[in-house]
Amino acid sequence: MLNNILIFLLGLVLLYLGAEMLVRGASRLAALARIRPMIIGLTVVAFGTSFPEFVTSLVAAFQDKVDVAIGNIIGSNIANICLILGVSSLIRPIDVDLESIKKEIYWLFASSIIFLLFGFGGYISNVEGIFLFSGIVVFTVILIRFSVKDRKAPHVEKIVRPEADYMKNLSLSVRMVIYLVIALIGILLLVTGSDRLIISATNIARELGVSDIVIGLSLVAFGTSLPELATAVISIIRKENEILIGNIIGSNIFNLLFVGGLLATFFGIPLESRIIYVDIPIMMIISLLLVPIVFIKKRFTRGNGLMLVLIYMLYNIYIFNS
User: Fold this and answer.
1) Is the distance from CB of 216 to CB of 63 less than 8 angstroms?
2) What is the largest CA-CA distance in the chain?
3) Cα–chain center distance at 93
4) Angle, to 10 degrees, between the axis of helix 302-321 and the axis of helix 66-79?
5) Burial class, 138, CB count within 10 angstroms (exposed 0-12 / middle 13-18 / buried 19+)
6) What CATH number has the domain spanning 2-321?
């Protein structure tokens, strides 16, 4: 038990260090490349923090536990919005730039709807998996094209923040490489830290007599969302709101199209009726809660954050009692 507790604490430290490095490197990289932090959040940060979901789901699929993999995808998406966005809003209210995020919200809804439609028959086929995966390719290409076009806009200059004097003496290309390496090291630390946390928490839960089913539905989905949570907390502390929002939405799109798409392409995804009629609809309803907040209020208040966290707690109570 003591060894698992120490490993758990080590995982927390790695998560903090990884999140700090990822947010710092990504925000500086966006500034030097004259790219909106939102774009960096939707791509580099979102893909990096979603890597644990990908690895966990892939390993589960190879072990013929595709139901665990699909549960991880859906559970992580619910955690990303309710827990991560909720906790971040409780720490500090989050202002939302509607024009920066509107199209990505549409992509999130479209991805969720297509995923549900493909799964209605109880099975997402290899062909449908290829279609889902092609969606993340198109999404990424569109973001890259937009970022290149957006670099010419005058407002991008406001993104640039002061750097340390010793960094200013280096060439632009060298500084960009340094910040990219910092961000990649941050991703590596996040993946390692979340892995340690999942393993140690699972071992502790088993020693306490918690069943494997409950562990899979709660700890695995929560554990693979820890990189997003750590990154979100650091982002809100550093007032990098665009990276925070971009990370959450980008991670959910990545989970559905990239992780879900690849799993269906190579393994096919059988879906239980509960996933089709309960969990995926809950995920979509929670995503719909973003509409009035983003499109009307344009601000996540502490009240919104409390509501989201309570929804997440109720969902987990439902999991434990279903």
Assistant:
1) no
2) 60
3) 19
4) 160
5) exposed
6) 1.20.1420.30
Domain boundaries, the chain: 2-321
**Encoded amino acid at 54, one letter:** F
Q: Is 282 left (phi over 0), alpha (psi -120 to 50) or beta?
A: alpha
Helix (H, G, I), strand (E, B) or coil at 270: strand
Q: Which residue in 130, 151, 95 sits closest to 299, CA to CA? A: 95
Q: What is the rounded CA–CA span in Å between residue 44 and residue 145?
A: 15
CA distance 294 to 155: 21
Q: Determine contact, residues 133/263, Cβ cutoff 8 Å.
A: no
Q: How far apart are CA 265 and CA 168, in angstroms?
A: 46
The size of the chain, in residues, is 322
Cα–Cα distance between 220 and 224 in angstroms, integer?
A: 6
Q: Name beta bridge partners: 269.
A: 124
Provide the sign of the torsion angle of the four alpha carbons 310, 316, 319, 320, taken in this order.
negative
Report the SS3 class of residue 300: strand
183 touches 22 (CB < 8 A): yes
pLDDT at position 157: 43
| Tens digit of each residue's pLDDT (9 = 90 or more) over 107-127 | 998 999 999 899 888 899 999
User: Could you read off the pLDDT of 216-260 as tens digits, one per residue?
Assistant: 556 666 766 777 777 777 778 777 777 788 888 888 998 999 989
| Predicted local confidence at residue 253, as pLDDT | 92
DSSP-assigned letter for residue 301? -
Strand partners, 94: 300
pLDDT at 127: 94
DSSP state of 208: T
Q: Name every residue whose Cβ is closer than 8 Å to that of residue 102 and which is 6 or more positions away in sequence.
A: 294, 295
